């Protein structure tokens, strides 16, 4: 499958001079994403196109020469989706950042390399809101969000990336560009190939243009923080809140995650608590029913403390939650897991992970978009310790 | 492709006695849905299973004997999706009506034959809400809603059927039953074959079990009705409302549709107005910002009258809108169209349809889920008039 460097002139001919990287130091940053896969290969070349036509040219060249393609967004993935193979062609979308907002239809058309935060900021200037907010929203790209069908903190109420994608332009493996969806809010005719692409991790093609639905400016959001003596109490409070109201945020961190964040940010988090719950509501009703319900449930589960925060403090605590993965990462090499459960089974999952950590004498920090049952057990290991393997062996496999 | 009646004993053997219909008078009601296709064929047999295993038995028999299958829900479709072919096997889900609600996870598992209204009523008893509300919700089935990815009046804010489907059990063409999705609120791993099935009109398999997401009891809903002198004024008001707020309902009927409904229901609708707009909001904020905005926009477009309704009157007017298709149907044979546009293009579409109706001297009533740009031009024709064809020829084709 490897291709001689003799073929590279043809690739260079088909693309602008600065769009093709082939020197070893240029290739190095494109070998890995944030999963830091120790088995990553070295690409033959990296292409950084600015247009759909340039993506097509690169894909056609790869198809003709049977060179495997690894599509890449901002390279912030934690599960190795952009890990290069030896002799592959990396096609990175980082220079594809155009954006065009249509306030009348409340939609936006973007190129895939635009960062989530850039999109949010641009539409906010027009009084509009793009809800999906992965914890990495300041550094991750929309193309990557689509490839992984990214969620986030507000997704418990406002849905995941798939819920906002109205249209895609994609380049298929033979270099054809096709449009999926018509960019309409209501469009239910025919098989939904659009939704098949969302979350397909670059395996079906490369997204080159995206039409997204927007919402009006978000309603005011009130945040409550609670600290618990036991993970059981925290997990049961979460399950009750999720069944009683529609929180706009319902996040969880355990002691290991809280301490990792506090080591970095010194926000005055409670290092002794077994579990931390951060709940939000944008219920604007005059009686603040949701807020009252959330407070009552948290207080009924024997908390150390419950704090109704100011908006500033609430945003700082949400940032603390978003900082959890890099903070835990700073403690050693990270193996990120991504486990979804029905919310009533959350206590059981937390228990099970604790038991695995104890049995294997390994640190597993536990954070969760708890309100939708999406959890991230964060296994911290030492890549230089042979007993802890090379990061691809689950801790239970060596017990 | 036709199969001898000699094969029917094998089908009968595989199924309970009362699940297989083969007598002509029994078959007749299963030849057509509400599209009343004049070219409908006569099935060899109709199977009315109660379980997934019975659906599998029928599908296996059909696969073995190469008999085409026409899946059928409640038979309320207006576009002929359940029209029988000569010698086909109709598999109808009307006896598959089990329901199991899980309040803790706010999900429900149903068989496909359950009516949308039955589902809504059952979950409402537990303080839960299933939003999708096609105008036919009292008579259409959940299986049919999934086959067509049905929308409805509240979908402008709360989304279509696809947004609520978390899991499916489907029987494929060879009789295998497979599960798609895991019934979890957050589930973004792998290709979304689940979403590929939603809206696939029975072409990929037969849905035999559905897991649906529910919401808490809906917030209070306030309704405003406005009557306009011109369709332009109405359409422009709609586009402005859709851009300014997030209405929970934004419906439109033209004069022909209003008159057809008034002929049947005598609700005191304004027969003289060129266009009728029905807007709803469930903004519960203390300043009722959305309601104020909607009223201001409607009043700025030279209306004949604007009425802030009581909840009872609002529900009666929504019922009037839901009654539009059967009311127009009573005027002659109906050719239902289903056209989606970006909302700013709504005035242009309404104009274009009016021009086609005039040029062809045919009645085209126009109704719309205007807030999401989903319109239904309703062409009324006389099936016995040779000039008006047999219902499959678009009016423009004979001009």
From TrEMBL, chains A, B:
InterPro entries: FAD-bd_oxidored_4_C, FAD-bd_PCMH, FAD-bd_PCMH-like_sf, FAD-bd_PCMH_sub2, FAD-linked_Oxase-like_C, FAD-linked_OxidoTrans_Type4, Oxid_FAD_bind_N. Residues 39-217 form the FAD-binding PCMH-type domain. PROSITE patterns: FAD_PCMH. It comes from the Bacteria. Residues 378-399 are annotated as: Disordered. Transmembrane segments: none annotated. Keywords: FAD, Flavoprotein. This is FAD-linked oxidase. The lineage of its organism: Bacteria, Bacillati, Actinomycetota, Actinomycetes, Micrococcales.
